[in-house]
Known about the structure:
Structural class: alpha+beta
Shape: flat
Strand content: 15-25%
Strand order of the largest sheet: 1-2
Distance between the termini: 14 Å
Helix content: 55-70%
Radius of gyration: 16 Å
Amino acid sequence: MFPKGRVKVLLGFRVVLLPALIVLGLWIVLQFFSGIGSIMGSSDEGGVAYMAHIGGFITGFVLAFFFRKKRDEV
Length: 74
């Protein structure tokens, strides 16, 4: 909802401000590859939590278009 916003991120021992789209993109990639890695591995977990995060993101992304206010209504 705020693509131009900035997010505080802990990198090492420093807190830096990064664009929200960059942080979101990196989070999605991390969840996707972690999910694939846990499915391909021999663990009993199966990566369900990672895929649930991705599914929740996609659902939220789609629903945001239905529930957002038009610029005229603000």
